[in-house]
Amino acid sequence: MAGWGRVAGVVLLIGPAGSALAGEQPLYQPAPDWAQVATLPDAAPGGGLQVLDIEQRVDGATVWNYTDTVIKLNTPEELAQNSNVTVGWAPDKGDLIVHELSIIRDGQVIDALAGGQKFTVLRREEALEQRELTGILSANLPVEGLRVGDMLRLRMSITNKDDALGGRAQLAVPLIAEPARIGSGSYRLSWRADDKLQWKSFANGVTLKPVRKGAYFELPVTLPIAKQAEMPSDAPMRFRSPPLIEASTFSGWSDVSKVMAPLYATAGTIADDSPLAAEVAAIKAATIDPLERAAKALQLVQDKVRYLAVGMDGGNYVPQTPVKTWDVRYGDCKAKTLLLLAMLHAMDIDAEPVLAHAQLGDAVASRLPTALAFNHVIVKATIGGEPLWLDGTGLGTRLADIRDTPAFGYVLPVRAEGAELEKIALRRPARPTIDLALDADESTSIDLPSVIKVDMVVRGQLASLLTLSTAQLGPKEQEDMLNGLLQNFVGQAQFDKLEAKPDAADGSVTITARGVFGSGWEREDNRSERWLSRVGNLIEFSPDRARASWANIPVATGAPDYAHYRLRVRLPDGGRDYKIEGEGALDARLAGVDVKRSVTMADGYVVVDEVLASSGVEIAPTDVAAERDRVATVISQTPRLVAPEDARRRWNLKGAPSTSQLDAVRSIYAVNAAKADEENVSALISEASFQRGIGDYKAAEQTLTRQIALQPSEDAYLSRSGVRKELGNIAGALADAEEARKLDPSSLGAIGAVAMLTAEKGDVAAATRMFDDRIALGGKSKSDLRLAKAAMVGEFGDPKAAIDELDALVATKPGSPDLLNARCWVKASREVAVDSALKDCTSAMELADSTAHILDSRALVWLRLGRNDDALRDLDAALLQVPSLASSRFLRAIVYQRLGRATDAAADLAIARQLSPSTERDYARFGLKP
């Protein structure tokens, strides 16, 4: 609801600030004399919010919140969104008073309440899913007779008073800023001249000055205010305060502290013969160490009292008693804090409550002293002169973690004599929240998926969620959840063993798993290498401080955290000739994160151990440039594992010293493939990809057939079509391509596959018509279709016609390496204008980023010209870039034979046949045979 939604947000923010004798039904009364009736703006063609007038008056301990809103309903959508008026208020904190609900039509004012219509009151705990009982009531009224073109006006007030504030008043209201549009908007704060009210604005570019009017001061603001300056998202929260006006009759932070103190008095809250006293006695009997006692008390509050925020019946500031909290076994931060305080005091441990803001703590020191500056309360215990910050709403805290510090910034101790703000000195957590160990078997080949054994210990909030999930979810749901979690740490994987075991004593959950995932080996600079560190992925430091207004803003680095990662990789061939490049050892602070890393290689294993720990420090603006450079330098020196040129590849698995990786991959894929169903065929997709990769096309065909039976798709049919082509089953391949095209007639992949296979079966004319029919439709894919047609004709039809088509395409895109390479290939493969083919390939190479396929084409040109040494040089270069390029393997076998290198020729021919059995048949059409 565009109009009322915006207004309701303002009303609810300024509303629940107090407690008074109030009713649970709206009152219908005239507006107070001091409320100004806003003048309607001149008729405007647009709809939406025409008037927003917010007036707040502080009178002693009472805050009166008056709003006047007018919304124009210019469209049926606006009418539907705004014809049902809903307003929320907390009855234990004040009254909802309706002054006017009217329809303005053609200059006439129609009283929408004249016929006796009243708001209906509903109790809706909208935040219950977030574990909150707010006690907010909703007053709802469907406005009768509204029409498109009408304006709907609502004038109302909400009064607030809170006895818990000891006669003080407080408020905070957001100021709507441009580019928000309001026909006429205003905000006005007023207070008695003899009240010692403080106010503060957090809006930039707005000059505010109180005006004395009789016995009151007024602070007027025109809305919307000027657009607020953008702030970088990585700026500390004190630089990102929203545009607010705050007001308060608290005299200072010490006053706030004093007022809150009686609410947390613990004397007499635990009766000697109560069940709670028995819990305290049990802890005292278990240990005499005050630190251990505090840890046990905190564990009891965290583990045995579930969190439920209670804001009703004055509960915004008043905690429920420890006895009630223990009896009902639920409570919010206030209740848990008071319970923990009472237990600690009963054990003679020095402890006090401290108010905090869980999200905006960094900005508290710049705010006006109010209780509104906080949304959380925890316990500060002092043991052995050391402060301990104990949060009863946390989860999984144990003795080892008791010195951990929350990132709450400035907090306010609650004391009878009062206290000032203090800042929590942050430190890194004592234990890793993530402790991950990966054992990877890559002993057969660097091309195969890595077989990993996972041992991951999780602590903190995530551990508690996992513990809850293991108790509530079924086996399949648990497996899905754990699978999704592990993907964040190891990437896409298939697991055959997956288990989570909670450890209540340790406050942790241990996840164990075995699976396969992409090992990370990549071809870079014509060699195979694998990155060994997570630092580059986990630490990113690219703050934008280019704007002059941002130059002096520090960079926030987040809350304290601690993670430990260990990777052990078993290498092929016992690690022979494998080497590590880059900086293995690292002990440095990067972007506020302390990083310690070691990398060792011995006995056929590489072991990487990394610790990343942060304490929430800020990066000073003067250090940003140097820190950015330092982070970039360290990441550029990330250790990499480099494989030897003769490393065993997926086409050379026979005779491998170790087959444990290969055997495990097959086993894990088989286990997961057996679980495939109509909803999830990902295991079959992975298994088929693996089988194609090692040249087992018959097995891949069977796997894809299972996939199609469960979940037919265009991709599945095209995949099986490609496999069947490799196996020489052209009729089956064509049938699959046609099925794919039926599922998606617009698919260029399916159209191309059907046309190429039709041509291969001998009907070039029919294949040409398929392309021509599609080309005639035009569109963005027209050029791609023309290129595909030229390739088909060049391979199966008239090469001169194909070259003419490519000439026309090159004329429109003379800088396209793909077009030049295609023309070079047709000329070379069909032996037409071979001399000019050389120029096409060379020009394509000069324009392309990746040249392997172009080198392959040019090698064929050299072969046709009888220049075998030049052909060999290009093929060597192509295979250095892409060792699995079957066409280059096949061509090199022919070149080797012509050069009298029969052994080398036989080796390459065997590899080509394994990688792509169809390559030999394809080249035979061009008269090229080994």
TrEMBL record:
<protein>
    <submittedName>
        <fullName>Tetratricopeptide repeat-containing protein</fullName>
    </submittedName>
</protein>
<dbReference type="Pfam" id="PF12969">
    <property type="entry name" value="DUF3857"/>
</dbReference>
<keyword id="KW-0802">TPR repeat</keyword>
<keyword id="KW-0677">Repeat</keyword>
<dbReference type="InterPro" id="IPR038765">
    <property type="entry name" value="Papain-like_cys_pep_sf"/>
</dbReference>
<dbReference type="InterPro" id="IPR019734">
    <property type="entry name" value="TPR_rpt"/>
</dbReference>
<keyword id="KW-0732">Signal</keyword>
<dbReference type="InterPro" id="IPR011990">
    <property type="entry name" value="TPR-like_helical_dom_sf"/>
</dbReference>
<feature type="domain" description="DUF3857">
    <location>
        <begin position="66"/>
        <end position="213"/>
    </location>
</feature>
<feature type="signal peptide">
    <location>
        <begin position="1"/>
        <end position="22"/>
    </location>
</feature>
<dbReference type="InterPro" id="IPR050498">
    <property type="entry name" value="Ycf3"/>
</dbReference>
<dbReference type="InterPro" id="IPR024618">
    <property type="entry name" value="DUF3857"/>
</dbReference>
